[in-house]
Amino acid sequence: MGSVSNIVNLRALRQSCADCALNQLCLPASIGGNDLDRLDHVVKQRPALERGDILFHEGLKQPALYIVRAGSLKTYVTLPEGDVQILGFHIAGELVGLDGLSEEGHRCTAEVLERTTVCEVPFESLSEVAAKVPGLQQQLFRIMSREFSRELEHPVMMGRKQAMSRLAIFLRSLSARLGGIGHDPLEITLSMSRQELANYLGLVIETVSRLFSRMQTLGVLRVDRRTLRILDPAALAMLAEKADDESG
Amino acid sequence: MGSVSNIVNLRALRQSCADCALNQLCLPASIGGNDLDRLDHVVKQRPALERGDILFHEGLKQPALYIVRAGSLKTYVTLPEGDVQILGFHIAGELVGLDGLSEEGHRCTAEVLERTTVCEVPFESLSEVAAKVPGLQQQLFRIMSREFSRELEHPVMMGRKQAMSRLAIFLRSLSARLGGIGHDPLEITLSMSRQELANYLGLVIETVSRLFSRMQTLGVLRVDRRTLRILDPAALAMLAEKADDESG
DNA sequence: CGCTGCGTTGAAATACATCAAAGAGTGTGG
DNA sequence: CCACACTCTTTGATGTATTTCAACGCAGCG
Questions:
Q1: In terms of pTM, does the model score above 0.70?
Q2: Does pLDDT of B86 surpass 60?
Q3: Domains of chain A and any CATH numbers
């Protein structure tokens, strides 16, 4: 996630949504000139955040929508016993905070994984603008639905009983998403620790570590700390569907 | 889910949202008289569906929102290998179909589990009305967010490594939701098979069966086929947090 | 009565968790 | 620059919960 982030950052310096590289992925897509200006005034660009910084906390009443411009973050809920469940990782172009529109405010916490810049859109302002700009309302619904659909990936992955399948599904998804924002889909630099990844996958850290090793042995992946190279996408796809492979 | 469904059905016979028992849970909440009439014209009430009937299929382009008036249904995605992952069960008062607002249409399939009545709101009409009625737009966002938050429950449950915790979490959630629509929260009549429940929990059917037996042995539950009686809510809560209980 | 679909229970296999220790990368201070 | 501490990760040995395989029970129904 790091190699081209400086390029994205250059664009991020510009203030206008119209100039943003993520324009087509983001709220402003398919919104005309004047309306876009209205939106621009609502969107606040926040200074770059560092690893560990909190974007919003569970329970925060003044909810806002965030668009990741560069970097990445995780969302999680804190369970009564104290430990957490990571719900998702979000890279550039992705939305975070849709859980916060209800009366109860945000229901999960968003924490930055690396140096990250985001655009912040307070909900109150957003819905005001949406009321005036019919296209934006439509677009908002579409985007919410898209994120809703993305959320479905998590339970689908967790539904797999084989740990290998879970990791393979995750890697394929991440690869595709990185490809979607112009990265090499075969070169993945993880921004999360093994611990965070294990938590997301519903596994323990040792299992994840072993899975990476096994994938490397199988020739599917080249693993160097947090840098991964997908050597055999077809094999990875096989693992995603069925951990039990016939290659021996 | 069956015992009071006839009462709900009585109300369901009335056509108007204003008279609906689910009013407060549903779209019309906090919308005034005239606006409510406008909404009424958009909401189609469908004839009762039977077990196995499909509300909408993955890929269906003319998306609609559905509100369950009585009965229950499941949503699932079909995986490339052919088997399915159940994403959720939905009882009276709950919304289904929020995944379908994007360009790709519905991303999951909704199938009825028992005799069920629903209100159908084609998304196109809905967003037209929402553009005219500011309160409705707000309400829509809130409802979408609420459903979004509800979706978070699934991965949190799946994140638990102990099967007993998963089932306990599910039962507590279902109990609370049944309580919310006026049922006895301690008396649960499951509308899904063991197979469907196992799939949802990410387990195999035998494990679920054994868990029910064990819960009964522990005195937490009384199990009679699909009818459950929660005998010890506190113990159930314990199991939800930590399967490993000190009671022996 | 015997079929069929669902659910339960038992015995065995196995994949993952747990426990334990060592390796590799990073930072700090001498 | 090296020694040290610290965190993150990897790897090994062992334990165990869940899956798998298999058989039986039970209700509904022709």
A1: yes
A2: yes
A3: 7-150 (2.60.120.10), 154-241 (1.10.10.10)
